[in-house]
Amino acid sequence: MTIRSAGVFFWIAAVFLVANCFGQDKMKRAERKDDPDNYRCYYRPKFSAKERMKNYPFNVAAQVVLTSYELDFMAKKEGTPDLERIVLSKIQIDSLTDLLFNNFYKGEIWRIEGVGCFQPRNAIVFVDAAGKEFERADVCFECLNYHTGPTEFKFGDDCKYKMSLLDPFFASCGIKIGPRSNKPREQH
């Protein structure tokens, strides 16, 4: 093989390789349609009640409690009593875990949207057998987000509007203050 033949072969191989790589990238981008509808929550009863209860912190909680509280500069001030505190029944816990773990993204997502505010006034509190709070998820119904602590845990897919599904759930359990406003709910 002459030097000239080797040079021609090199350029043909290089062109083929570059075209092949960029062609696949263009195809991947074309397949990757960022459909806004994929971010919405879609209910699919994938997990049974027994499977949902295996998720932390539900799997170790003796009680699950819904609360509302006064906001003190973007957090609940330690030692501040709850305005409302409702211990959930087994049926209510089943409904809550169904809402949290059986709502999914519709399709593939390619970005996570940030949240501009976080002023929670409600929480899902997890209590151990000794009656002590060991985990909580503070919920902001204004920006539709939640924050967990002291351990970070998730409630399944963080699909759009999942937290807005909690608003009527809190109301159905008897929480009157917090969701969507800091004013008492109107009685219908």
TrEMBL record:
Annotated protein name in UniProt: Uncharacterized protein
